[in-house]
């Protein structure tokens, strides 16, 4: 018991950030992620950092851009409508190659929508979100421990690639409490030969996203593209029961979590169902899922939306003589394992003769 | 071993607190636990509930449609959650606020009427510990954790400024356990 604490999902994110050496937090309140700024306001100062409640989401993301350009570890968090407001800044950070961690404890939309869990931000998260041809790495935790561990990891990935990293959770992962172990952060060193720290005794540096000279922007975009491609070496995913499965459920985040119960029930009823859970949503584990499709031909994407990740599932396994079914659940309430079980049963009976 | 429960009542009856304490008891016995507070647009003075899962294995969903058990502290919670409790499950009913008459629609279910306020006064001399009484009853009925783990759970789960009340809390837990 000594090393296990009962921690709320949102708090675990803030704890992970502080453990990873986050020194600046900028945010503007919105449900369901308010425990993150709350925890940061209480604790970041004691760790030698600075907490700022900004005047808006737009201000927070630009403060993140500023802090990141000095090589400091910094974070902002918000929820769906607030993350929409940050998109311009995220595009500028990607274009200028400035690291920073952005947490989206998403709620439901479109518009103000509601505060219930949703996975309707999948496209926004994985396709860039703002203007221009860019990507952010996206990490999707499914437990409070992962909230903590993946937030720490997000700082490393962000520094390694000089690119913002998005942690995508939802109300369920933010509000739930689970025991966690506060794993220690292992400090890594990253090149800082680009940061703005006062040009004393060295050539001045410039961080920018504007490239007007002939051909410069083309080169810049190709360079960014290659960087996004190189992120594939950090792809993460979890699988369960694939050895004997005839059908694979693909799901991420809180839905994957709930589905672990549904799949256990399905297996008790004799259905050979397995789970493939992408942990990095961008880059999506395309090759890894395709390998699964070498031997298993039936897939089902289950999402808290009317269908977004299913496009990546089809891009991964669609050319391998497979079936890809879908169960979507637009936001409103939290689905139960039993509800998912019924949908799995219907598809299983249809596909597995 | 697997156990889940929904604890429901008015805000102020301490339902979230006993949910936390039960989760800490699970941790003390090195089990997996999840604690999910009610999530929605809640009002001051409204109803509160939380779902706790305790298991030796990895826990999937922290949200349970049909729980094995429920602790029901008031009538609105009874109407909302009693129909959802599994047929072979059980309910601990706060009979300080819920009458046998209220229970009539749910006669097919297994339940224990626990006069939480009276037991809290008798066992611990403090009516505010009624929540610990119903938790004690639930622990006894389910056997999911040992009462002997509760001191650890209270120490970990209660703010330090309330630690002088741990003894009284333990007495109330025992009072509830002895009653069922």
> How much helical structure, as a percent, in the residues of chain B?
25-40%
Residue share in helices of chain A?
Answer: 25-40%
| CATH class category of the largest domain in chain A | Alpha Beta
Strand order of the largest sheet of chain B: 2-3-1-4-5-6
For the secondary structure, the number of strands of chain B is 6
CATH architecture of the largest domain in chain A: 3-Layer(aba) Sandwich
pLDDT averaged over residues of chain A: 96
Q: Kindly provide the radius of gyration of chain B, computed on alpha-carbon positions and rounded to a whole number of angstroms.
A: 15 Å
* Tally of individual helices of chain B: 7
Which pair of chains forms the biggest interface, and how many residues does each contribute? A-B, 26 and 26 residues
Coarse structural class of chain A: alpha/beta
- The geometry of chain A reads as globular
So how many helices of chain A? 13
How does the SSE layout of this entry go?
The complex is a heterodimer of chains A (353) and B (180).
Chain A: E1 4-8, H1 9-19, E2 24-27, H2 35-43, E3 50-53, H3 57-69, E4 74-78, H4 80-85, H5 87-96, E5 100-106, H6 122-126, E6 137-139, H7 144-161, E7 164-170, H8 171-175, E8 177-181, H9 216-230, E9 237-240, E10 247-250, H10 253-268, E11 273-278, E12 280-282, H11 286-292, E13 298-303, H12 309-317, E14 323-328, H13 337-351
Parallel strand pairs in A: 2-3, 2-4, 4-5, 5-7, 6-7, 10-11, 10-13, 13-14
Antiparallel strand pairs in A: 1-8, 6-12, 9-11
Helix pairs in contact in A: 1-2, 1-7, 3-5, 10-13, 11-12
Chain B: E1 2-10, H1 15-28, E2 32-37, E3 47-55, E4 69-72, H2 75-81, E5 90-94, H3 100-103, E6 110-114, H4 116-124, H5 130-142, H6 150-157, H7 166-179
Parallel strand pairs in B: 1-4, 4-5, 5-6
Antiparallel strand pairs in B: 1-3, 2-3
